[in-house]
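Hi F.,

I've been meaning to write this up properly since the lab meeting, where we talked about keeping a consistent format for the predictions we share between groups. The idea is simple: the sequence comes first, exactly as it goes in, then the structure tokens exactly as they come out, then a line or two of notes. No screenshots and no reformatting. I'm using this chain as the first example so we have something concrete to point to.
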Amino acid sequence: MRFLCLHGMGTNPQILEAQIGLLRAQLPGSHDFVYLPGEVECDAAPGVSAIYPGPYLCYYDLPTTNAVGDAHDLVLAFIEDEGPFDAIIGFSQGAALASSLMLRRAKDASCAPLFQLAIFICASLPFDLDAPPVVVKKSSGGCLQFLDGTASSGGWEISQPSVGAQSIIQEFHAQGYNGLLEDGMHVLRRYHPKMPPGANLNMGVPTVNIVGKKDGYYQQGLSLAKLGGSRGTVVLDHGGGHEVPRDLLSVRKMTKVVQDAIEKVRFQC
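Output, unedited:
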């Protein structure tokens, strides 16, 4: 199989290659792994700089309409130039970006899926480019407000804050993003399996979701699995944090679920 590989925020393709090296070594057969670097420089992910050299990259530094839209365009152009790819594997932000692309594609019933298989490792929920955004407003005193955007003939109109906006405020505070936000930015909402359009969507291909119960994005990874596909979704909890597991038992379990998914795709083709 030919895999497109998307790295996490604050890493790079060489780091992802090392992170999934044990998985690659354990998988039987011959597979081709092609890595796409993000185009945005950022700080190194926690613990990374002590082990791996930079540059440290991401596909988007903030989940704004423009930044995530540019990331979509980057991946689609790479697929056009270097594809096709049978499967995609993403870690962290790479998994969120991959699933965002696949769910957006799934909204158009006339389009075939971009891949036959998706492997998501420690994923967060993907951002929806088509949903009304949350709009950043700064008061005269510099305080931030997050206002719901609603569709209008002229683009987006700003309404009052809602529960949906409050969840984004909390996440931005937790990640320290507030200092990067500017007045008028359009911040994207995440897909969720219990909320439209996620409640009515699935990726239409088998997915493998590798999560860790100590990961801060554990619940989001489980929710992403529910957006997986009508053709089968597998969840493997490696029990650790926000990392690709490297202990022998976890690697064996991870290899088995990935290989089973590969065989499933081959059987269905």
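Notes:
The two ends are 13 Å apart (CA to CA).
Residues 151-163 have pLDDT under 50 and may be disordered.

If this format works for you, I'll send the rest the same way.

G.
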